[in-house]
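> forwarded from #structure-qc
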């Protein structure tokens, strides 16, 4: 999930309007850990929360987006709104495709039809952010076809490059950097995520688009998943998932 999340953020950043809106309205650089925690809480609530909890989270998010100030992207000169369906659709699709492709490349098992079922089920998440589910890809093939239609608009702006580079080395307390392996582990996960980007997205960033890069990222991703799977579940398990199973058991 961490690698997939980083991959989604790197992919979302190549849309100039999404990147401009994120940078103008997010406290990511001032409070990166809080921002990541809130994103994780959103995914956990939508995935594992009750229907009422998910609907409430969606209402709060739509209200927040509606209050944010529109802006102008400095490179293209195009105006944007945070609640623009086109931008919300890009964020949704990159998230869904990143979780699906990363899970698969890290060794996750999928049966026949599972990938399309996942993409279809995630249309509910799209509705919660304010999208019409009928306008959202419902199969993996439709998801990849959507990428093809958007690619002419994509580029890595100076803002996207700055934020992407910053993401490899976010601020950490001095004692964490000195006494723990957090810094190299973080950089390693983001590097794997970058290697798992589509070839066309890596080339936008000026990164290698070679098959060996794909292979190295896949092998590394599987190694991370294997290592984490060996740890006790309470150390690595999602609290939201644990709560959901406890609720079902009761």
């Amino acid at each position: 999930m961490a690698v997939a999340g980083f991959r989604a953020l790197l992919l979302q950043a190549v849309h100039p309007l999404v990147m401009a809106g994120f940078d103008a309205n997010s406290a990511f650089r001032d409070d990166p850990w809080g921002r990541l925690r809130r994103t994780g809480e959103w995914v956990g609530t939508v995935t594992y929360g009750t229907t009422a909890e998910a609907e409430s989270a969606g209402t709060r998010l739509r209200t927040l987006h509606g209050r944010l100030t529109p802006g102008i992207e400095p490179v293209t000169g195009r105006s944007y709104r945070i609640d623009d369906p086109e931008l919300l659709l890009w964020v949704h699709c990159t998230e869904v495709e990143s979780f699906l492709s990363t899970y698969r490349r890290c060794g996750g098992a999928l049966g026949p039809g599972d990938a399309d079922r996942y993409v279809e089920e995630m249309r509910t998440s799209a509705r919660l952010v304010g999208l019409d589910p009928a306008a959202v890809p419902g199969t993996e093939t439709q998801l990849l076809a959507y990428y093809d239609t958007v690619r002419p608009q994509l580029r890595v702006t100076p803002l996207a490059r700055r934020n992407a580079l910053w993401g490899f080395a976010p601020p950490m307390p001095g004692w964490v950097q000195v006494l723990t392996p957090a810094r190299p582990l973080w950089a390693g996960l983001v590097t794997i995520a970058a290697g798992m980007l589509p070839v066309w997205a890596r080339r936008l960033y000026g990164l290698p688009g070679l098959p060996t890069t794909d292979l190295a990222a896949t092998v590394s991703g599987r190694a991370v998943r294997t290592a984490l799977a060996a740890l006790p579940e309470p150390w690595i398990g999602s609290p939201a998932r644990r709560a959901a199973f406890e609720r079902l058991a009761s």
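QC bot note: Residues 2-159+176-249 form one domain. DSSP finds 15 helices and two strands in the chain.
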